[in-house]
Amino acid sequence: MTPPTHPLALAPVSAPPHSVDGFVKEFLRELNTGQGVALSRSTVNDQYLALARTVRHYLMARWLETLRHNRQSKAKYVGYLSAEYLLGRQLGNALMATDLNDVAEKALASCGLDLATLRAQEVEPGLGNGGLGRLAACFIDSLATMSVPCIGYGIRYEYGIFRQTFVDGRQVEQPDTWLALGAPWEFPHPEAAVEVDFGGYTETYDDNGTERTRWVPAWNVLGIPYNYMVPGYQNGRVNTLRLWSAQATKAFDLSIFNAGDYAEAVRAQTFAENITKVLYPEDSTPQGKELRLQQQYFFVACSIRDFIEQMVEEDFDLHNLPERIHFQLNDTHPVIAVPELMRILVDEKKWEWDEAWDVTRRCFAYTCHTLLPEALETWPTDLLGRLLPRHLEIIFRINDEFLAEVRAAYPEDELRARRMSIVADYPERSVRMAYLATVAGTRVNGVAALHSQLLAEKVLPDFSSFWPDKFTNVTNGVTPRRFIKMANPSLSELITDTVGPGWVTDLERLAELEPYAEDEDFRRAFRRTKDVNKTRLYALLRTRDGIDLPEGHLLDVMVKRLHEYKRQTLKLLHVVTLYDRIISGRVDPTSVLPRTVVFGAKAAPGYRMAKEIIFLANSVAATLNADKRLNGRLSVAFPANYNVTLAEKLIPAADLSEQISLAGMEASGTGNMKFALNGALTVGTDDGANVEIRQLVGDENFFLFGMTEPEVSDLQAAGYHPTEYYESNAELKSAIDLISSGAFSDGDRNAFEQVVSNLLYQDRFMALADYQSYLDAQDRVEAAYVNKEAWTKSAIRNIARTGFFSSDRSMRDYLSRIWGATPDR
Ligand code: 26Q
Question: Residues 305, 530, 674, 801: which is the catalytic one?
């Protein structure tokens, strides 16, 4: 059948004019005919939805043109497979990408509306936990901006990361109903639904003399694609993010309907829709939950099928698939894609095993985001066999052939073969997904130089000696569009006035700011931007959280997921020590540097210790903020529900960035990069990307403290005894005793028993060992901050020297080291 055509259809849609009047017209049309309300009767939500659709309209022509271009150019795609995308609000980004911010502002003003108010109405899509999901969002932004063909594949969770509230200082989770007020950025395509099978058994059959296997599944669900625009920055390109939503299949519930059981049929529907109902809020120590595996297979099966069908439509020979796509596995969550592609090629396309494996292993690459052994995903073979029996067989065969290779290379070393087995026998029979990804991928990368080194040496040593060329590093990056240009307009204007506008897509040009560190006027202008950002933040915290923060303080910020290894407790020990020094009379409050400490952190709902630490932080905050003896010199704020939207306000305002994980534990960090690029100085350990930040900004512009990774290993090996530090350090002892005394809990001495005894008797992440060094570093911070001009110079040098951390650079590294794809202009 020939597709329908019309002369006018050659230019798919034309963007509305970029004039204020043109924009007003579009906006009112959306309000009236899209939203069905008159301006005079419209709510803020009506206005926001109409505005979003108006801006979306300006991107439409570019999107359709990008899709047309892709089909024609046959360029190689990046297929980014990620169970999480932590996108943040869309409207501001779309206005920036289309350069419509000023037009929209004026157009709305002429209708008596305020753009900022409408922007504040958007609920961010929080479809991720933290770093890994946010990284995926930065990467697809960069690829679009660099004109690289990319499809992001993922899951459209009906409920994203929970909304955090505090009740009496304790975290209470609320569902994230991000879709409730309308979803103007998504394009559902129910007609393009894909079927996904589960359960059942496998059987062999004779196919004209060849024995083949077929999977006889027990049930299936539908995957509905929802498309989202991923606009490049002012470059006319719009890539696609395709998120899948689960729905019951007709066949599935019809048979039950026909059996007359209405209630059972509706239950079946609920069962299917459960798969994409909610994002798992854990970001480590995976629990091996069946629903989680269903989510993983669901989105990966939809995505692989989706891409292959696109290729088949083109009559493309799948033997050349690696020339058209590289699937990047964002951690192990999508690794079940490997046996899925094998199953399609071997069972459905009836290829020989060897030719299927040859193609499959050239289509994938794997990024690891952790070093914590308990965070490495494994799936019990019981569970896998029940849910995906054919995939388990395929994994067994991949493993058998791989181990044969290992044994051939090391004939006398059976222990090595056992260590390297994808299938582990202890403590239960299970599949190590990181090993499967390593065996199947063309490349394995860590996310910062130190992490990639430790990954090769400590997590996958047998694999890195077997395939040294497979292992590489790509240091993470962040998008300068969202995290500088959009989040920090005052700094952006200063940078553009100084070096021109090109830095937004060529961040190394920030280096041109370097000489201005010596320029007094520039320094004053830089300080003004910080003040503007602080004022903006404090106004937000007043209305958002009812928190009133004092002006003129050093703003000290620690925002990231709550994890013991990240050591929020070390920060709390510092705060308690500062407090203790004043109330014990050891220091005079009037001689203390005024400081405000801001925390932002969500704890996984089942992570008990993390929740206790949140309770301690809130209790310390409440006590300090009420204590007049501090003379307003020290205050602590813990606004609830830290998310991308809050980060965009907090980071530009910060003076000091806390990056204090135990060395060797934080794979990279990306918040650390955002702070440095916004002119905060870092107090940090030699961990993750901090190492590279420090190398670039120079020791004199970075407050380094703590043990190095080898020192941590040595101390571990020698035997670590936290009580020795407690007994021998008077300030440390006094701070811990103060916590135990009930000073932060209305006299209740047991309130923080778990946190305290964990620190004293376990302290897996060695907070006590690094305490003194951390306090010394904070003394250096205070001494430096007093000298405003010198501090400002350091801040400017941080900005000028960290252009490396653009996610555009990360993408160039992936392109050259891993994907072998190129921009397609
Ligand atoms: C796995 C299985 C079951 C349930 C949940 C999970 C799960 C979900 C999310 C496991 C891990 C995550 C997220 C991990 C993460 O965000 N890691 C961070 O990745 C950043 C980007 O590379 C790094 O900068 C951080 O250092 C790293 O902690």
Answer: 674
Residue among 139, 284, 379 to mutate when testing ligand 1 (max atoms within 8 A of CB): 284
Residue 254 pLDDT: 61
Question: 132 CA distance to ligand 1 centroid (A)?
Answer: 5
Instruction: Round to the nearest angstrom and report the end-to-end CA distance of the chain.
Output: 31
**373 alpha carbon to ligand 1 midpoint, in Å?**
13
Residue 784 confidence (pLDDT) above 80:
yes
199 Cα to the center of ligand 1, angstroms: 28
Q: Is 674 noted as a catalytic residue in this protein?
A: yes
* Closest by Cα among 50, 813, 37 to 449: 813
Angle at 739 between CA 736 and CA 745, to 5 degrees: 175
Q: Report the separation in Å between the CA atom of 61 and the middle of ligand 1, taken as the mean of its atom positions.
A: 36
Residue 97 in tokens? 């990408």
Q: What is the DSSP letter of 519?
A: -
Name the token pair of 420. Answer: 């390297």
At 12 the pLDDT is 58
667 CB near ligand 1 (under 6 Å): yes
**Is 560 marked active-site?**
yes
| Ligand 1 pocket residue status of 330, Cβ below 6 Å | no
The alpha-helical segments, DSSP class H, found in 459-583 are 461-466, 480, 489-499, 520-545, 568-583
Token pair for residue 177? 């109903």
For residue 128, the Cα-to-chain-centroid distance in whole angstroms is 6
pLDDT band, very low/low/confident/very high, at 23 (cuts 50, 70, 90): very high
The per-residue pLDDT for range 799-823, each reduced to its tens digit, is 999 999 999 999 999 999 999 877 7
Domains 74-88+124-315+322-475+813-819 and 551-799 are alike in CATH topology: yes
Q: From the candidates 134, 534, 560, 571, which is the catalytic residue?
A: 560
Question: What pLDDT shows up at residue 733?
Answer: 98
Pairing of the two strands 423-424 and 430-432: antiparallel
> pLDDT tens digits, residue range 675-710?
999 999 999 999 999 999 999 999 999 999 999 999
CA distance 131 to 82: 12
- Residue 301 in contact with residue 196, Cβ under 8 Å? yes
3-class secondary-structure state, position 567: coil
Q: What is the mean pLDDT of residues 242-271?
A: 78
Query: Among residues 57, 89, 242, 369, which one is catalytic?
Result: 369
Q: Check pocket membership of 280 for ligand 1, CB cut-off 6 A.
A: yes
Per residue in 552-573, pLDDT (tens digit) is 999 999 999 999 999 999 999 9
Distance CA 824, CA 149 (A): 7
Most confident of 71-75, 262-266, 302-306: 302-306
670 is catalytic: yes
By C-alpha distance, which of 170, 141, 173, 172 is closest to 159? 173
**Domain 551-799 of CATH type 3.40.50.2000:** yes
Q: What local confidence, expressed as pLDDT, does residue 3 receive? A: 79
Residues listed for the chain: 825
Whether residue 535 lies in the annotated active site: no
Residue 11: the pLDDT is 59
Class for domain 74-88+124-315+322-475+813-819, per CATH? alpha beta
Q: What is the DSSP letter of 483?
A: I
In the chain, domain spans? 1-73+89-122, 74-88+124-315+322-475+813-819, 551-799
Centroid of ligand 1 to alpha carbon of 133 (angstroms): 8
Catalytic residue among 566, 602, 649, 801: 566
Instruction: Dump pLDDT digits (tens) for 379-438.
Output: 999 999 999 999 999 999 999 999 999 999 999 999 999 999 999 999 999 999 999 999
Distance CA 97, CA 231 (A): 6
Exposed, middle or buried: residue 546 (CB in 10 Å: 0-12, 13-18, 19+)? exposed
Q: What is the pTM of this model?
A: 0.97
Out of 262-276, 321-335, 530-544, 771-785, least confident range: 262-276
